[in-house]
Amino acid sequence: NAGVTQTPKFQVLKTGQSMTLQCAQDMNHEYMSWYRQDPGMGLRLIHYSVGAGITDQGEVPNGYNVSRSTTEDFPLRLLSAAPSQTSVYFCASSYTPDPNTGELFFGEGSRLTVL
Amino acid sequence: GQNIDQPTEMTATEGAIVQINCTYQTSGFNGLFWYQQHAGEAPTFLSYNVLDGLEEKGRFSSFLSRSKGYSYLLLKELQMKDSASYLCAVTDSGYALNFGKGTSLLVTP
Predict the structure, then answer these.
(1) Which chain B residue has the Cα nearest residue A47?
(2) What is residue A100's predicted lDDT score, i.e. its pLDDT?
(3) pLDDT (tens digit per residue) in A84-98
(4) Cis amide leading into A8 (omega within 30)
(5) Cross-chain CB nearest to A42 (options B95, B97, B100)
(6) Chain A residue set in contact with B, beta carbons under 8 Å
(7) Which residues of A touch B89 (CB under 8 A)?
(8) What residues of A are in contact with residue B45 (Cβ under 8 Å)?
(9) pLDDT confidence of residue A103
(10) What is the pLDDT of residues B29-86, one digit of tens each?
């Protein structure tokens, strides 16, 4: 059972480049989310989805797009990378559509550096 | 919006007991979570409180007072492997789980 799988684990981008961070889960979880983690800032929610075809913004959505065409996949797109987007990104999922009632399962993280 | 406060750092001795506090202000409340995160790794779930009182799970316990907007995580019989960051997270009336900045715990011999 793979759980939550993120790719790539490491990526270096130049300012202005675009890229997609992939997230896939094989637990048939309804809820999926993306966080970024920066030193001294904790985990901050970027976008989340309560099911296929449904997405919503979190605390820091600017500069990021998401889509949820299948239950399994929740990719995060950086449209035009900026140095401020240098961070560690975590994808997380929950078996319940409501994260209020179920624990989050996290992927191993993707470390992104924007030069 | 939400405001979640935790101490930044704590140090404790192996074998001792440590209490990590979390205070929160939120427009609605649907539950409080504690997660553990070792350096360079992903967070992992520790506990969930939705009603007032103490939830015990082995060496770890978590307490919640909704009227005071207060929770704590109690770690007993500390071990070196407990050195990690401990993240408090609360949910409001929506579907977003928001985290505090975390408390870095160092366990010393």
Answers:
(1) B96
(2) 60
(3) 999 999 999 988 766
(4) yes
(5) B100
(6) 31, 33, 35, 40-45, 48, 50, 56, 58-59, 90, 97-101, 103-109
(7) 43
(8) 103-105
(9) 85
(10) 778 999 999 999 999 999 999 899 999 989 999 999 999 999 999 999 999 999 999 9
Question: Which tokens go with A101?
Answer: 């009632």
The answer to whether B31 contacts chain A (CB < 8 Å) is yes
Q: What are phi and psi for residue B104, nearest 5 degrees?
A: -90, 115
Residue B2 is predicted with a pLDDT of 66
Phi, psi of A84 (to 5 degrees): -65, -15
Q: What is the DSSP letter of B100?
A: -
CB of B95 within 8 A of CB of A93?
A: no
User: Nearest 5°: CA angle at B69, between B55 and A106?
Assistant: 60
Q: Which amino acid is at B46?
A: L
Q: Looking at the predicted structure, is the pLDDT value of residue A24 above 90?
A: yes
CA distance B23 to B2: 11
Tokens of B98: 């928001």
CB contact B9 to A (< 8 Å): no
Report DSSP letters for A51-114, one per residue: ETTEEEE-S--TTEEE--SSSSB--EEESS--GGG-EEEEEEEESSS-TTSS--EE---EEEEE
